[in-house]
Amino acid sequence: MSTSRLKEVVAAERDGIKIKDRKGLSALMDGLIHEAVFADEEKKKGLFLLIKEIAKACGAVPASIQGLYEEMGRNYPGFTVPAMNIRGLTYDSARAVFRKALEKKVGAFIFEIARSEIGYTKQRPLEYSAVVLAAAVREGFQGPVFIQGDHFQLVRKNFLSDPAAETGYVKGLIREAVEAEFYNIDIDSSTLAALEKPTLKEQQRPNFEKTAELAALIREIQPKGIEISVGGEIGEIGKKNSTPDELKAYLDGFRETFKAGRGLSKLSVQTGTSHGGVVLPDGTLAKVKIDFETLRQLSDMARKDYGLSGAVQHGASTLPEEAFHMFPETGTSEVHLATGFQNIIYDSRHLPADFREEVYKFIKSEYAKEKKEDQTEEQFIYSTRKKGFGPMKKNWWDLPAAIKGPIMKELEDKFELLFDKLKVVNTVEIVKRTVKTPMVKKSIDTSLLG
C-alpha cells in the first residue's frame, strides 16, 4: 500500500496522533504493517514508530504487568498468565490471539520473544512490538499490551571466554528492548551457576549477582512512571529440577545484592520440561512429566517468603491438553508457550505440502552442519524448523488468505483452550484495576503521513 492513504484516517497534531477514521484505519493496517516489515532499514524504523503511536492513540498501550504480579504476590487470584512466543506468521497469529482475547474477555496475556528467537526469526524488538500492536489495532483491542523479552540469557560458553563482551551484548539487547517498549524482561543468568562450588549460595552467586547487575540497568533506563516487570531464573531449562533450597539461596542472594529499587516480580524454575519437548527418532514427542508438587512448593515459597507473583514454567506448549489446568491449581504465575504454536502451523493440513517441503529443503541445505550424528532426519527437521521462519519470512507472510485463514482458526482453537485451562477468561477487570498504563510518546516522522 502507499502510506499516502494514511492521512485520510489519522492526523499528526502537536500533542500526538489523532484518529480520524478508526474503521478505515483498521482496513489499511494489513498493507501498512506489510510495507513496514519489508521496507528498507531507514523507512522500516519510521513506519514501526508511526504504527506504534497509532496503536497508542487507538488505546492499545505497551504496559508492564508489574501491578498485577504484585497483586498475585499478596493474593493469588487463581489463574496462570500465558506468555506466548510467536515465531512466524506473527501478525496473523497475534490477530488470532487478540480476537480470542476479546471474545473471552482476557486481559492477562503476554507476547514475548527470546534472545535466540530474535536472531533466527529475524524480528528485532522494534519490529516485534510494532507487529503485535498493529494486530491489536486491526482487531480493535484496547487496553494494556504486555510485550516481554524472554530468556535475555547470558550464554555460558560466551561468558566464560569473554565475560565483559557477553554482558555488554545482553545490556545492549535490554536497552534496545526497553526503547522498543518491552516493559517486561526476563533475565536468564541461570547458565552461569557454579555447580562445582560446595554451598548452594556460592553455586547461585554468579546467577544472582549478574541478575542484580542487569536488573539495575533496567531500573536505570525504564521510562518515568513505568516499573518494568523483571524476572529471574534458577535451574536451566532441560536440566535437573529446581529445589526450595536453590530458590532460597538465589532470592536471598539477590535481595542482599540488589539495591536499585524494586526487585523481581517472578522466578522461572525447572520442573521437568525442555524447550520444544523431547523428540523421538520418528519425529514424535516423548511424553513429558512435570513435577507439579515442586511447582506448587516453589510458587508458595516465592509468594509467601519473598512477595513474588510465584514460579514461572517454561517449555510447556507441547504438554498434553489435560495437563494445563494444573498450572492454576499449583499457583503457577506464568507459563511460557512457543513450540506448540509453531507445530500447529507446520503440521496443519492446510499448509501446502510443496510449501512445507520448500522450507524443509532450505533448512536441510542451510543448517546441515547442525545435524547431530545420532539424529534421524525427522529429529533434525523437528528441532531445526523454527529457523525456517526468519530467512523465509516474506514467503510465509505472502501465503494467500485462503491458506492462512484455516491455519489461524486452528491456532485460535489452541488459544481458546489455553485461556480456558489457565483460567484467564474474564481477567480484563483485574488487569484494569492493577495495571498502570502511562503512555510513553515517541517522536515520529510526520512526512510518512503524506
What is the radius of gyration? 21 Å
Unreliable stretches covering 5 or more consecutive residues:
none
Domain module count? 2
Helix/strand class: alpha/beta
Share of residues in helices: 40-55%
Order of helices and strands: EEHHEHEHEHHEHHEHEHEHEHEHHHHHH
Taken as a percent bin, the fraction of beta residues is 5-15%
Q: Helix count?
A: 18
Principal-axis shape: globular
| CATH class term of the largest domain | Alpha Beta
Offer a few descriptive terms.
two-stranded antiparallel sheet, 8-stranded parallel barrel, 18 helices, 2 domains, about 450 residues, alpha/beta, TIM Barrel
Outline of this structure?
This protein has 450 residues and is of the alpha/beta class. The chain has helices spanning 22-37, 41-57, 66-74, 90-104, 115-120, 125-139, 156-161, 163-179, 200-221, 244-257, 292-306, 326-329, 339-347, 353-366, 377-384, 393-397, 401-421, 428-434, and strands spanning 10-13, 16-19, 60-63, 81-85, 110-114, 143-153, 184-188, 229-233, 266-269, 311-313, 334-337.
